[in-house]
Every structure is written in C-alpha cells, then in structure tokens.
Task: structure prediction
Amino acid sequence: MEHLKLSPIIAEEQIKKRIKEIAKDITKSSSGKTLVAVGVLKGSFLFYADLIREIGLDMICDFCGASSYGDDSKSSGEVHLTLDLQTSITGKDVLLIEDIVDTGLTMNFLKKHLATKNPASVTTASFLFKPSALKEECSIDHVGFEIENDFVVGYGLDYQGHFRQLPYVARVENMN
Ligand code: IMP
Result:
C-alpha cells in the first residue's frame, strides 16, 4: 500500500470535538429509555467506541454487519447482511452507528432490516456523509462530517483492509 498517496482531510482533534457535539445531541434527545447502540462492522468500530463513551445514557452494545463492497472501491449495488444483532431490540430505542454513507444503500438496507424487529425508535449516526454520491434518498439524524465524493481512509475506513487504524481521515489521491 506504500504506493498510495494519502492527503489528510480531517484531523484527530476535529474528530474528537465533533464526536463530543454529536454525543451531546444524542444524550439530549433521549427518551430516557435504555439505548441499544448498534455499530456496523467493521468500518464504524473507532467512531462507535469514541461516540458511545461520550453518550451519558444507559446502553446496551451490539453490532451488525453489511456488505456491498467487494475488495475494491466500487460498490456492487447489492447489500447483504453479514452479521445480525444478538440482542432483541423490540420496543427499544436503537442508535445505528455507521462509518460512512456513500450511495445510501447500506444505511437504507439496515434501517429496513432493523424495522422488521419492531424497535420503539431508530436514530442514525454516520461519521461521514458524501451527499453527492447518494443513489437513493437517505436521511441521517447525526452526521460527523460531510465530505466530497472522494475515496477516503482512516478512523475505521479502509482500502482493501488497510488504513483503518489511522487516527485521522485521509483522501486517497491516486486510486487508479
Ligand atoms: P453505501 O452503501 O454506498 O452508502 O456504502 C457504505 C459502505 O461503503 C460503507 O460502510 C463503507 O464500508 C464503504 N465505503 C463507502 N465509501 C467509502 C470510502 O470513501 N472509503 C472507504 N469505504 C467506503
């Protein structure tokens, strides 16, 4: 991966600051019930870990997995579930935590999937959002940062499994 040129676009300090703001909003708008925080693996793991530690609510942690990307940067357009929840969310408030909304297909697929389990509510948070890449309408309750339609890595996001560990977000300059 040494051949890839990365340009940092969101610094670690900016991420920390924004997460505190989002967590405050989520905490403020709570119904007072226990929240089931659902992280979408693998990409959300750093955002998830940092966000839930700033939310001052009683919480149950769970994860799900969905896949639409193969090993490269092009979406296949079809989303499938790779890991389902272990917790019952019937009658519960759910916070769905994603790394990035690109085409919107994964977020919409997961919202529909969660709805089949009859939760009391589903609130969504995505660390990143690429509005100009949307293929279908997709509403997100809490967005960390809106970015251009570039391929980015770091803070959980990967290119072929690499770069997830970076504490900042970088644009990949020479993808092809
Ligand atoms: P969507 O279904 O097109 O919105 O894509 C959602 C998934 O695609 C995300 O959860 C990411 O795993 C992956 N993805 C989309 N854009 C990027 C990117 O710029 N970098 C890394 N992964 C991405």
About this structure: The chain has a mean pLDDT of 94. DSSP finds three helices and nine strands in the chain. Strands lie at 6-10, 35-41, 59-69, 75-83, 93-101, 121-129, 142-146, 152-153, 169-172.
